[in-house]
Fold this sequence. Notes:
Blueprint: E1 2-7, H1 12-23, E2 28-35, H2 39-49, E3 53-56, H3 59-65, E4 74-75, H4 79-87, E5 94-97, H5 105-113, E6 117-120, H6 124-139, E7 143-146, H7 149-164, H8 171-174, E8 177-182, H9 199-202, H10 212-220, H11 222-235, E9 242-246, E10 252-257, E11 263-267, H12 273-281, H13 295-298, H14 312-323, H15 327-343, H16 351-362, H17 372-389
Parallel strand pairs: 1-2, 1-5, 2-3, 3-4, 5-6, 6-7, 8-9
Antiparallel strand pairs: 8-10, 10-11
Helix pairs in contact: 4-5, 5-6, 6-11, 6-15, 11-14, 14-15, 14-16, 15-16, 15-17, 16-17
Bound molecules: magnesium ion (MG).
Amino acid sequence: MKQVAILGSTGSIGVNALDVISKMPGELSVYGLAAHSNADLLFKQAKKFKPSSVSLFDPDAAGKFSGRLNGSCRYLPSGVEGLVQMASEPEVDIVLTSLVGGVGFAPLLAAIRAGKTIALANKEPMVMAGAQFMKEAERWQAKIIPVDSEPSAIFQCVQNERERRGGKEPFSKIIRRVFLTASGGAFYRRKGSLSRVSVEEALHHPTWKMGKKITLDCATLMNKGFESIEIMNLFGLNYSQIEILIHHQSIIHSAVEFSDGSVLAQMSLPDMRLPIEYAMTYPKRGMRVIKPLNLAEIGSLTFDKPDFRRFPCLSLAAEAAKKGGGLEAVLNAADEIAVDAFTRGKIKFTDIPRLIEKTMKKFKARNSLPSLAEVVEIDQWARQKAEEMLGGL
Ligand code: MG
């Protein structure tokens, strides 16, 4: 029986993960549940899954929550400290990181240094310092299995080939090219200017039901930019090996081309429970928890080249990926500030890439790969710079 700690249990990934776990009682059990501030849902989850430890990030919510559960459940501290503690508990086998944004940086590092299997859904730390995290994972013998549907698809496509070659060969030697698919988000098919779109419109994703931050990142296509960096880092690829394709149906979650030109794709209906289950049952495949794919009903699958001019976040991500030297952390930090400001009605939708670009321009990229401590400093610097420039857009 594998013991799972879920960092971010009340978000969309966390809720789906608990649904998967509830269907596999003999194989997976919940060791810890950490949530941001939704105490009522955490309470319900804890009643049902009886974790050994819980944590609420928000100190006010944590204060009110303490003592609500009877039995032997431990209350870990609020804030990052509780997440770090939960990620490194000796009894935990799998840490599912489904936090939102750069806040997941320290908990991911803690899980890696504790040698855990990490079901990685929180992509931002892998954008900020993915190459550094992969080095740490090798050093501490931690396994990182992606949960995000696109890197999960790539992982699933290359796994057999890699195992056949002894399981040690770097992915970059096995993969010739990756087709990274994108639904296109809320506005891809919309005509005309995007400067006046509302938060409600931007939150209307055509195929996936997800949290606010990622849905907004989908609308700007920054989510795809982030995924391209995440994939480059996870699989040790060159940025030029990644080709982004708009695929509105979200049936092919990504595909891999091998040396002989053969392409393998991973398909399913868009349902996050599949990649979550795969990450938690890997190297085995679990049971079917999602609806079966009916290709005849879907009829056709379409692919287009993305429009980098209309969605400048794609170009900004490509620039950060190619230059490196900490620029990826600046990209991520400025995006978090910009998306938050848009959500609060402070800036227009089209100001999101403008603020990110301005912040990136102020940064002097390092000549070599920054250390994890340096990345934390760069992150703080970029957040401050982006905040300062909000008023002057
Ligand atoms: Mg994704």
